[in-house]
Amino acid sequence: MTRTLIYLRYAIAPVAVLLLIGCNTTPDPNVTVTGEDELTSLELHRELSSNDKKFEEVVYVPIYSDIYINRLNQKALLSATLSIRNTSLSDSLFVSTIDYYNTEGQLVKNFIKHPIGLAPMATVNYVIEKEDTSGGSGANFIVKLNSDKDINPLIEAIMIADNGNKSFAFSVEGYTIE
Asked: pLDDT at position 38, please?
């Protein structure tokens, strides 16, 4: 009987550890089901042709990583989703730059190395987790867009937070600076 209990203990312990590890993993919202980074999976690995660059636009998108929630100067951390939407029914949209800047205006990260392509009516989203405070309260994205025709894409950011039993969300649209 004692030997059976010892074998059970050695059999159950690894299973319990695997279950606990599995419960603690949170899927990365920026990774596809195949395990690839969302933006990297869309990279073209080629230069855009002059035909692809007939339309060009640079969009500024503000991101709020935290906001004040009361008179005691307490802050709520926000997660932010950058959403780039191709609103054309027939033409592809190319994104050649997605740069993330902090409150001081310093470049924090270049999110793509090569242009990405969005098919007609396609969308790409990228999440800045609320624990990522590298951008600060005045963070922003600069997004450069190209297409072979003049189209009107929608670029926006959605911020979400929870504080105790309260949750809130708001969105901001990017605006063209060039």
From this structure: 82
Residue 116's nearest CA partner among 50, 44, 31 is 44
The structural domains of the chain, with segments of one domain joined by +, span 32-176
For the entire predicted model, the pTM comes to 0.81
Residues 6+ apart with CB under 8 A from 90: 120
Longest dimension (CA), the chain: 79
Contacts of 175 (CB under 8 A, 6+ apart): 59, 60
* Angle at CA of residue 100, ends 95 and 103, nearest 5°: 150
Please check the confidence at residue 144 and state whether its pLDDT lies above 60. yes
- DSSP assigned state of 129: -
pLDDT band at 23 (very low <50, low <70, confident <90, very high): low
Query: Looking at the chain, how many residues does it have?
Result: 178
